[in-house]
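Newbie here. two chains, one complex. Structure please?
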Amino acid sequence: MVDHTVRAFDIELQDLARRITEMGGIAESMLGRAVEALVKGDLRQAEEVIGTDAGLDELEREVNDKAILLIARRQPMAVDLRFIASTMKLAGDIERIGDLAKNIGKRVKAIGVPFHHPSLVTGVTHLGDMAQDRLRQVLDAYARRDLDAAMEVWRHDDDIDALHNSLFRELLTYMMEDPRNITFCTHLLFCAKNIERVGDHCTNIAEIMHYMLTGGAVNQTRPRAGAVTEVDLAINGDTES
Amino acid sequence: MSLSSDPVGFRPPAAAHSSSGDSGAGATKVSARRCSVFYGAKQALFDVDVDIPERMVTAFIGPSGCGKTTFLRCINRMNDTIPIARVTGEIIIDGKNINSDKVDPVALRARVGMVFQKPNPFPKTIFENIAYAPRIHGMATSRDDLAEIVEKSLRRAGLFEEVKDRLDQPGTGLSGGQQQRLCIARAIAVNPEIILMDEPCSALDPIATAKIEELIDELRENYTIVIVTHSMQQAARVSQRTAFFHLGKLVEFGPTDRIFTAPNDQRTQDYITGRFG
């Protein structure tokens, strides 16, 4: 796109985009390290993840302050206005991803020990990898302003949901097998839920990008994993966003 | 009572007037068909086709020299007053082509009023500024009739309360914003159907501008308004339709809400975001 006549405006917009990318990088790393800490029962790493969150919150505030100032100063229109409004929303979604990673860190501390159930380790690790991939893809799409890549993420949230559902069922069976598993499994359940929510935020980011790049909302329905059952409702509630 | 739709009371009280609504088009008041304007050998406007809706504010935007004022002046045949100007194509108001020889431009200009960039009251009293046109158009038979028209016009222009005690003083003694509202009152005194405004606020301070914009919003209940403005924010604030002109061509015309958030044409996008070279 052609530069603005006022060069400072371009620089300010680039600065906003750079901060989103920076926030995305931090959130992505927090998520990865949180899941790793969970699997390894690494309390120190969990603490580290929790500590990182404050910085991400601060970045979000900065992004919002700068965006507000930019609106006041430049009275942006059309693509610029959409970009700035979207930036504020993106910062919110990314900040939430950081919160979710932080929550996993807290759970790790609550569980207190590594868990050695191979199937669960594989399941949680895989779920974490998927969410991280999704996040990386959508952030790359943002950096490249690549709508197709963003919509690819948007279409493929169902596998995260499916894996989360199967993990839920597995955890249920362990809880039924032995009530002493309940505490641990509940923590794990919430961790899985947190990871699954990261996937939802990734689809949000893709939707925001769609608006940012086209000016319109996504007008398709997203593919859902399987039919809604009572178990699904118990798992997912009505948190669809 | 539902609070959720307006939790913080940001919505303006006259929601029906807000420019964010009205996406549905009303009846067409003015249609241009292949309208071109030449100044001598130079073509200033190229084949403009547009349908301007009734009782809405339509804003013309575009860089200097893009043809927006030239086109505005076609709507009441103001280009007739420029000897070297030649207009081709049709301007149809209520189904009649006003470029026809049978149309009397003076009568036309009573139906299509105009307000200019610089407030230009007559060097007469405030009363006479308003009364002049109704008198020559034979709209009033007595001084009482005239006084009524003057008061009504000044009220509609939101100026009456400010000037009612000095109607016999010169219009040129008012502040710039008051003078501009006087000119609007003068334009509406002859009951026009359409009001053309050529950058009506560019000589005014922000408060006087806000008063004119408020007035425009009220007037659109009864009049079709076309406004040329260099302020994109003003176009976004006051209009329901926006037309973007560039190099003598109408590039894009559509609902203001869409033009300023998601224009279709790259040139519109570049212009309104400040990317024009």
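Moderator note: Helices of chain A lie at 7-40, 43-74, 78-111, 118-144, 147-155, 158-177, 182-214, 230-236. The first helix of chain A runs from residue 7 to 40. Thread marked as resolved.
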